[in-house]
Design a protein that fits this description.
globular, 22 strands, about 500 residues, Rossmann fold, 18 helices, binds magnesium ion, alpha/beta, 6-stranded mixed β-sheet, about 35% helix, binds adenosine-5'-triphosphate, 3 domains
């Protein structure tokens, strides 16, 4: 079969207590874009880690271009033409964009030293070639947004003349515009003969760009289907093993008295005179593009940033949060979208992460209540269906989607009065997405107020009782339930006021 570039047969991989890959097989054809689908914890990343040399399988065969291969490590795989962009970004915070793109392959001068001028010139050319004219090649990686970091990682992978490129959930942190650019990059590469494996929980993307889809469940192969001949429902059924009828729940809870009010809040150039209110039982959606100030607004509310002017009122009384702990003490919780750097202690167990979020409540007479933390963590593991044999497992050993569930459950366990949540279902599979929306709604129904930022349009529209749109730090409009359409949101978030549009 010479049209096959990469073939996997009978691969097994076991971790303590988990059979991550169970007699898995997978065939990648030359020149195709092949989606790998499955629920959180199904084994997608594990399979890709085996294919890119990061993990050694317990057994099984891999052939590349018809020859049996055994990758000793990721560098070895790269040399043979298989490159991967990982789901969880490796931390290269203190290196620059250019250094990160070239790592070990930086151009060198006659003395064998890295030729920085040349390296940055090449990095610049690469960034320009792919349309990232606004990313500075000398900037530190950690100064970029998560989305931008991801794009640099992708450029790093494509600059290595890969035959096979593996993208593990590349778009979960990207804005719509960045996603469009990525799709373009994928098409370009594909036309140059690169075969691509694409992992994503966003099925619209799969339908947009992929030729074939393989579905796996519980570490096992289920089916491979041509995308053009499949429906969304069919793929979901293979993944989840049942039909998923998505109910987001907007408008189903009793909206009560005012909880929170912002009056004319400004912060540097990112927030300009923002006023809004949040009520008990309400899910308020914040719409906006990258740079509109959505995350900064949440950070001001949580005491991460200090507003330069304006007032924040909680239950009608003005509050000044000097730090996140002030906000926590007042009953607020903040679920960040940057879970890897700021959300979780990856090296600690699920139970310890739970403890960290609840430390103020789980300390009695100076003694930390480890047992209670364990019990609490176990309860939330059930409630959020976190797939792991044990809450003593380190968070870094969980699949990406299950890490997100840990982050969510930690904060919800505090039973906050106000939940601030940035991209709640990033990297979460379809079935679990539904249960997370149900949980958020359940908490709203019990009187919690929720402010949610989401770039996922169906989620934003479906889960919010009311939507406030931001454009360059200013509120450009508010849409009540029933009046929301995707078109109106697009107009407001791109700075076109509705009246302007009407008078066009
Ligand atoms: N290094 C590891 N040590 C222990 N267990 C692991 C390790 N890596 C993965 N696992 C376990 O293997 C199973 C499969 O995980 P994997 O990351 O492959 O899932 P996934 O399909 O990529 O899920 P997601 O969509 O959430 O990213 C999970 O139960 C996970 O906890
Ligand atoms: Mg994964």
């Amino acid at each position: 079969m010479e049209d096959v570039i990469l073939n996997v047969r009978g691969v097994n991989k076991e971790f303590p207590g988990v059979k991550a890959l169970d007699d898995m097989h997978f065939t990648l054809r030359r020149g195709e874009i092949h989606a790998l689908l499955g629920e959180n914890g199904a084994g997608k990343s594990t399979l890709m880690n085996v294919l890119s040399g990061a993990y050694t399988p317990d057994s099984g065969e891999i052939t590349l271009d018809g020859e049996a291969v055994r990758f000793r490590n990721p560098m070895d795989a790269e040399k043979k033409g298989v490159s991967i962009v990982h789901q969880e970004l490796a931390a290269f915070g203190s290196s620059t964009v250019g250094e990160n793109i070239f790592t070990t392959r930086a151009p060198r001068n006659a003395l064998g030293m890295i030729d920085y001028a040349k390296m940055y010139k090449q990095a610049r050319a690469l960034l320009d070639e792919y349309g990232f004219t606004d990313v500075n090649e000398r900037r530190l990686m950690r100064r970029l947004s998560v989305g931008r970091q991801q794009i640099v990682e992708i450029l790093r992978a494509v600059s290595k003349d890969a035959k096979v490129l593996i993208l593990d959930e590349p778009t979960s942190a990207l804005t719509e515009k960045e996603t469009d650019i990525l799709m373009q990059i994928m098409r370009d590469l594909n036309q140059r003969g690169v075969s691509i494996v694409y992992i994503s929980h966003r099925l619209e993307e799969v339908f947009r760009i992929c030729d074939t889809a393989t579905i796996m469940r519980d570490g096992r192969y289920i089916v491979t289907r041509p995308v053009a001949e499949s429906s969304r429902d069919e793929l979901v059924r293979y993944m989840v093993g049942r039909d998923v009828v998505h109910q987001y729940g907007a408008g189903t809870s009793q909206v009560g008295s005012e909880l929170l009010r912002l009056e004319n809040v400004s912060y540097k150039k990112t927030l300009r005179g923002v006023s809004l209110t949040l009520h008990k039982g309400e899910v308020l959606g914040l719409a906006g593009l990258e740079g509109a100030g959505r995350t900064e607004l949440l950070e001001v509310l949580f005491g991460v940033l200090r507003p330069e002017s304006g007032r924040v009122l909680l239950d009608g009384k003005e509050v000044h949060f000097h730090s996140p702990s002030d906000a926590k003490a007042a009953g607020l919780a903040f679920i960040t979208k940057d879970r890897k750097n700021r959300g979780l202690f990856l090296r600690k167990s699920i139970s310890d992460n739970y403890l960290a979020a609840n430390l103020d409540r789980l300390t009695r007479r100076g003694f930390t209540q480890f047992k209670m933390a364990r019990k609490g963590a176990e309860e939330y593991k059930e409630r959020f269906n976190i797939r792991t044999p044990d809450v003593k497992k380190r968070v870094m050993k969980l699949s990406g989607g299950n890490q997100q569930k840990v982050l969510l459950s930690m904060w919800v366990s505090r039973q906050p009065r106000i939940l601030l949540i940035d991209e709640p279902t990033r990297g979460i599979d379809v079935g679990t997405k539904e249960s997370i929306h149900q949980l958020i709604r359940q908490y709203a129904k019990s009187g919690m107020g929720v402010i949610m930022v989401s770039s996922d349009m169906p989620e934003l529209i479906g889960a919010s009782d009311r939507i406030v749109a931001l454009y360059e730090g200013e509120v450009t409009g508010e849409l009540a339930l029933g009046a929301v359409t995707e078109e109106k949101i697009m107009a407001l978030t791109s700075g076109i006021t509705l009246s302007e549009r009407v008078s066009e």
